[in-house]
Amino acid sequence: MGSSFRAVTYRDGVLTLLDQTELPQRETYVELRKLEQVADAIERLVVRGAPAIGIAAAYGMAVAAREGVSPEVADARLRRTRPTAVNLFWALDRLKPAWSEGASTAELESIAQQIDAEDGAACRRMGEFGAELIPDGAGVLTHCNTGALATAEWGTALAAIRMAHEQGKRIRVYADETRPVLQGSRLTVWELMRDGIDVTLVPDGAAAHLMYEGAIDCAIVGADRIASNGDVANKIGTRGVACACRAHDRPFYVAAPWSTVDLSLPSGREIRIEERSPEEVTHIRGVAIAPEGAKVRNPAFDITPAEWIADLVTDRGRTGSPVGAGLQRLKNA
Ligand code: MRU
How far is the CA of 143 from the centre of ligand 1 (A)? Predict the structure, then answer.
């Protein structure tokens, strides 16, 4: 059930990324040998998805060490790339102290490989715990891309979906297109079609209607940062999906590895939300879809309150509800 591609690979000082800005038209790979190239790739969403950003940043530190950059400069540059996904900071918090205390490049590479392998194992565990939530015959809504493109292996929410499919459950996946960058239509649909999983692409605005019609039984999404009370930051539009689930009495689930949990923050209010370029909203692949000069807001993430989440799947197990109490229970697991 592994996937036929890897979003992030590293060998002998070269970080290779599947260029997600080119999907689904082209499956191309870029080879990066400099810190600045890695930082730029993270900023431009060549690599994206919280766990994959953390893995790429970890290898980015190894690339920077080979380049002769100082640990302080490398760490500061990578920290500036994207503010919301905590996996980035979690990975740098493992690499930077080791490097500052004199770790060799080979040792840094080995820490990065460990982070990569740990995420792969976490994906498999989330798949197993998450599949329990998905009944045979269910219509399952997902938002953004939480698959192999966003992680080391199977994904987070998509790992649960993949495992349910593997177990022979006849599920129908509905993938929100996920405006403005279209991670749902470009990436999730591409991944699930390759795996032979029944997937239907829907405009973001159609999800509530499909719940009303009865086609969608539950929703499962990923996370970029989870506060200690269980509030979740995820791709913009997630909060709307959770609202629709509440209004139609459908369970709303989240799946994320423990590396996405940020117990230092009391609630979602303290999570910094990335604002991205207006061009992502006014243009699609260079073509204007709004009048020139239009005022734009482009928050890349939103916050879903813990009370709206029926269950949170982690690689340590499920929190159940209330999510915040479950996180405290799993903290030392
Ligand atoms: O802006 P992106 O594409 O990096 O946002 C990704 C998401 O919001 C995902 O849902 C999240 O990182 C979970 S990925 C396993």
Answer: 9
3-class SS at 220? Answer: strand
The 10 Å CB-count burial string (b at 16+, else e) for 92-115 is bebbbebbeeebebeebbebbeeb
- The minimum-distance atom of ligand 1 relative to the CA of 48 is 4
Known catalytic residues? 224
Quote the mean pLDDT of the chain.
Answer: 97
Q: In the predicted model, what is the mean pLDDT of residues 123-142? A: 98
Distance CA 321, CA 75 (A): 37
The first and second tokens of residue 217, run together, are 């039984």
What is the tens place of the pLDDT at every residue in 133-169?
999 999 999 999 999 999 999 999 999 999 999 999 9
Ligand 1, pocket residues at CB < 6 Å: 48-51, 85, 144, 146, 150-151, 155-156, 183, 222-224, 234-235, 300
Listed residue (177, 120, 149) closest to 27, CA to CA: 149
